[in-house]
Amino acid sequence: MAHLAPPREGSPTTVVDPRLRPQRPASANRWWGNASVIVGALVCWEVLVFLGLLPGLYFPPPTSIARKLVELFADGTLPRNIGMTLYRMAVGLLIGMGLGFLSGVAMGRSEPLRRIADPIVGAIYPIPKIAILPLVMIFLGIGESSKLFVVALAAFFPMLISTLAGVLQIPSIYFEVAANYGTGRKDLLKRVILPASLPTVLGGFRIALNSVIHVTIAVEVVAAVTGLGALVWFSWETFDVEELYATLVVIAVLGIVSTYGVNRLSRKLVPWRA
Amino acid sequence: MTGFVCESVGFSYPTADGWITALGDVSFEASGHEIVSVVGPSGCGKTTLLKLVAGLLQPTSGAIRFTPGENGDRPRNALVFQDHGIFPWLKVVDNVAFGLEMQGVGLIERRGRAMEFLDRIGLADFADRHPHELSVGMRQRVGIARAYVSQHPILLLDEPFGALDAQTRLLLQEELLGIWQEDQKLALFVTHDIEEAILLGDRVLVMSGRPGQVVEEVPVPLPRPRALAAPDRPEITEMKWHIWHHLEKEARRQLSIPD
Questions:
Q1: Which of A171, A182, A272 sits opposite B102 (nearest CB)?
Q2: What is the pLDDT confidence band of residue B210, given thresholds at 50, 70 and 90?
Q3: CB of A182 within 8 Å of any CB in chain B?
Q4: How far apart are the first and last CA of chain B?
Q5: Whether B51 and A187 lie within 8 Å, measured CB to CB
Q6: Residue of B nearest to A173 (CA)
Q7: CATH 3.40.50.720: does it fit domain B35-55+74-255?
Q8: In this structure, are strands B61-66 and B203-207 parallel, antiparallel, or unpaired?
Q9: Which helix (H) or strand (E) is B243 found in, with range?
Q10: How far is A174 from chain B (nearest CA, A)?
Q11: Any CB–CB contact under 8 A between A139 and chain B?
Q12: Which residues of A touch B77 (CB under 8 A)?
């Protein structure tokens, strides 16, 4: 037990050869490594265009894309469209994940339900959600609700499948402990099923988020006049190549930020799997 | 007085190859503040018996009758498992307080009572840790603490020290005896370790292999409070060999070692 106590200052056990101590934590080093690779690539790109080795029409230099980005932010184009995309992502994610989680728990806890729903899920899940959009528009019209439905669907399936897997792999001993202490249905869900499946559910959340980004942008490219996907298509139609690149940069940043956010969230929510 | 009677309790379950009888015909009673050890070869239905008494399984034949508690209900029990019995997502203090939480005790009070017990057994410094930061032995102590703090009158222990090394087991046996001495409950202690069964129990129920049956009940005439130095006494050694002869045949059969 003694070794678990915090070492006291100046005690001989805390003496570490300073040469052995890394300058920065490994994750920070990796971050700087990634950043310098991207910056290096951008500098090469800029130089190649400047030297005339890359056609500036198709590959506008990064500095002019950056200028375009600032411009699009300043005139409100990007804030407006980012807002719209984030709104669709958030609403679709919330609805799809919520329903996916609840369905996953229900299927995990009921064998008859699992037997009925499994083949249905298996049949619908592999269909690219963007291909369902026309059908959904027949039912829900060409307005916002059909878009949100398809985005929600993109979040629903990964969430359902990983929640189901998460619930099925809960060791039976936890249910026995809960039953032994007289745990009711609500407490069982809150204190046992949710935390016990959380690591797997968060894996599903990660996939759902990725899938939602893909589908939201795709839906906007095909069937919207607002949002980053629509902006990509609009830039193509007006042949504004710089705007096209600028929008793609924003989409990439959106993906990076969300991945980072989910990883941070996972570490916070599942400290016992640290 | 808390107690229960097992009357010809049997348990069978269906498999693809037909019904399997895990427990044949078990009859015994337990009451008051005694520790009843149950010892038997692996697969003899010891754990099944414990789960039947716990109410997690229902007997397919026979019945278990409980002496009603003060409020006329069936007395509650607390199980201690061999391993993985505590929740990895709860801090130690909340694991210990889980039984109280399920009884509807408020956060402040249940944490207070859990801390009191942790303090008593010297685990207070680990109250805020998660189980993965603890050793296996410490996790078992948390499991025992949870069972005790829940205040249920019957304690059911399913090989709680089975996964521990010999030294740790000795210390935890001693600790359990100490805790029990201070707050005596009716306890059913399942183990495959004959010596452990004798050292902790007031009686040892010896079970045979599948279908599990109680083949003998051996009283342990050792005085309490007990010290663990006792195993050197000749009557214990004698008792040990006596029980071993019951188990030997089954153990040989399982290992295909001829008699």
A1: A182
A2: confident
A3: yes
A4: 45
A5: no
A6: B85
A7: no
A8: unpaired
A9: helix B234-255
A10: 7
A11: no
A12: 180
Please report the sign of the dihedral spanned by the C-alpha atoms of residue B205, residue B208, residue B212, residue B213.
negative
Give the chain B residue whose CA is nearest to the CA of A183: B102
Q: What average pLDDT does chain B have? A: 90
Confidence of residue B80 (pLDDT cuts 50, 70, 90): very high
| Residue owning tokens 């893909």 | A214
- The answer to whether A163 and A117 are in contact (CB under 8 A) is no
Order of strands across the sheet with B186-191?
B77-80, B154-158, B186-191, B35-39, B203-207, B214-219
The domain segmentation of chain B, as residue ranges, is: 35-55+74-255
Q: Name beta bridge partners: B188.
A: B36, B156
Report, as an integer, the average pLDDT of A223-234: 93
Q: Output the CA torsion B179→B183→B185→B188 (10° steps).
A: 0
Q: State the pTM of this model.
A: 0.81
| Residues A108 and A163: beta-carbon distance below 8 Å | yes
Contacts of A195 in chain B (CB under 8 A): 87, 89-90
Contact B204, B197 (CB under 8 A): yes
Bridge partners of B212, per DSSP, are: B23
The beta-carbon neighbor of B132 closest among A171, A191, A272 is A272
Instruction: Answer whether CATH 2.10.70.10 is correct for domain A62-273.
Output: no
Among the partner-chain residues B98, B130, B131, the one whose CB lies closest to the CB of A181 is B98
